[in-house]
Design a protein that fits this description.
Blueprint (H helix, E strand, L loop, with lengths): L2 H31 L10 H14 L5 H13 L5
Length: 80
């Protein structure tokens, strides 16, 4: 029985050591594409135009502004 915990301990230690390396690789690649702002604060100009158009004319008439806002959000790193 004394051998079992010793065998489990190195494997348990090896798993966390490998996970942070994988996690740091994900984090490093994620920094390039991760948005720097909250989605509610990104692209205020296109958001305002989109919202005003929807209120005045309805969503169906505002596809131009909706797409412009989506394009802006994608440029900011959001996956829309």
């Amino acid at each position: 029985m004394g051998g079992l915990p010793t065998e489990n301990t190195p494997s348990a230690l090896a798993l966390p050591a490998s996970q942070p390396n994988q996690g740091s690789a994900v984090i490093k690649s994620g920094l390039d594409t991760k948005p720097k702002k909250k989605i509610c604060c990104a692209c205020p100009d296109t958001k305002k135009l989109r919202d005003e158009c929807i209120v005045e004319h309805g969503e169906d008439a505002c596809s131009k502004w909706i797409e412009a806002h989506k394009t802006c959000l994608r440029a900011e790193g959001f996956n829309i």
